[in-house]
Design a protein that fits this description.
Blueprint lengths: L10 H11 L9 H13 L3 E5 L2 H11 L7 E4 L6 H8 L3 E4 L22 E5 L10 H10 L5 E3 L7 E2 L2 E2 L6 E5 L12 E5 L2 H11 L23 H12 L8 H6 L6 E2 L7 E2 L5 E5 L5 H13 L15 H7 L7 H7 L2 E4 L7 H18 L3
Parallel strand pairs: 2-3, 2-4, 5-8
Antiparallel strand pairs: 1-9, 6-7, 6-11, 8-9, 10-12, 12-13
Bound molecules: pyridoxal-5'-phosphate (PLP).
The site of pyridoxal-5'-phosphate has 14 residues, from helix 3 and helix 4.
Length: about 375
């Protein structure tokens, strides 16, 4: 089986974790600020707040911004479920806006039509490491005086229009699950230039404790969303290797002439940090063709996945908000045709060639369906 994703862990990462294990500081130790500083400095932001997942990072941003029941947050239906779950955790309502068919990101030109007096923030997602359109989202948010919570969980290392991903939002979030560009096993980080918002997040992640207060003094209701030093030590080494990671050139070269699929498009004015490699069947194919492709590639030893099913059609969301197929036609059409193929740093070119040959063989079967 050629796996969809594999972390890239060297002796350096292993030694860094072992060093923490030999120390007395397994949590709340020096590796936490070291990791926060490394990521904040790399992106060019003032504050980093490490937490235990990308989901909790997103949720803390919304809570720090005071989002509550009755508020509306504008977001995309083409993403991982956590981009919506963080909104539901605050009891606010996700308001979906359809996507741009090339970048697969929220279409900035549709955002203004979705703004109401209840809109309290915009939560755009760097889908598959592509930040196309984020400059326009910033312009629209500024015009309407709305904060942006940037879900960059899939985008650490991406540059768009000269700016690093993680620097567009009022608050920006990364995720460090093992399929991400940088991993800490599990983990996440909030970046912001606002010291007050950073302080609130630091308190919220640590049971509501205050700055310089005692262990049993709690300023607000909080959580244990802390990221241990063990994970941060791994993150410090991974962060020092960000620019070695994720080059998709092999697939782009091997699949350049394949007319039955659409390849991911890197924006002309940006440089993508690849998170996954997602191909899309051209319009003449339907969901049954994509599903057949996924099944047959798996049977042939290639792990694949249907990144992403539409968030608005997940049964619990569809039921709660009355969403149905056709509400976001571009998202619906894209979701029926996409497939993520194996992609990670240590994927040898020989394996990439096997993936491509298998893909082509399975594509040949589609016209008989
Ligand atoms: C776009 C997006 N947002 C949020 C998350 C949540 O991150 P985590 O799994 O670390 O909670 C992910 C994780 O895959 C993601 O892809």
């Amino acid at each position: 089986m050629i796996h969809l994703s594999r972390p890239d862990i060297t002796e350096k990462e292993i030694n860094a974790v072992v060093d923490v294990l030999k120390s007395p500081n397994l949590s709340l130790g020096p590796k936490v600020p070291e990791f926060e500083t490394a990521i904040a400095k790399y992106v060019g932001r003032k504050y980093g707040v490490a937490v235990n997942s990308g989901t909790t990072a997103l949720y803390l941003c919304l809570e720090a911004l005071g989002i509550k029941e009755g508020d509306e947050i504008i977001t995309t239906p083409f993403t991982f479920i956590a981009s919506t779950n963080c909104i539901l955790m605050t009891k606010a309502k996700p308001v979906y806006v359809d996507i741009d068919p090339v970048s697969l990101n929220i279409d900035p030109e549709r955002i203004e039509a979705a703004i109401t007096p209840r809109t309290k923030a915009i939560l755009p997602v760097v889908v598959f490491g592509n930040a196309w359109g984020f400059d326009r989202v910033v312009e629209i948010a500024k015009k309407h005086n709305l904060p942006i919570v940037e879900d960059s969980c899939e985008g650490l290392g991406t540059i768009y229009k000269g700016k690093k991903v993680g620097s567009f939002g009022t608050m920006s979030c990364f995720g460090f699950y093992p399929n991400k560009q940088v991993t800490t096993g599990e983990g996440g980080m909030i970046l912001t230039d606002d010291g007050n918002l950073a302080d609130i997040c630091v308190s919220l992640r640590n049971q509501g404790r205050g700055k310089g207060g005692g262990w049993l003094a709690h300023e607000r209701m909080g959580y244990n969303f802390r990221l241990p030093d063990i994970n941060c030590a791994l993150g410090v080494v991974q962060a020092s290797r960000i620019d070695e990671f994720r080059v998709a050139k092999t697939y782009l070269r091997l699949l350049a002439d394949e007319k039955r699929i659409i390849l991911p498009t890197e924006p002309a004015d940006g440089q993508m940090s690849w998170f996954v490699f997602v191909i899309r069947l051209v319009d003449k194919y339907q969901q049954k063709h994509r599903d057949h492709l996924l099944k047959r590639m798996f049977e042939n030893g290639v792990q694949v996945s249907n990144y992403f099913p539409p968030v608005h059609l997940q049964p619990f969301i569809a039921k709660q908000f009355g969403c149905k197929l056709g509400d976001f036609p571009i998202t619906d059409a894209v979701c029926q045709r996409t497939a993520a193929i194996p992609f990670h740093n240590n994927l040898p070119e020989s394996d990439a060639r096997i993936v491509v040959d298998t893909l082509k063989k399975c594509l040949d079967e589609l016209d008989c369906l």
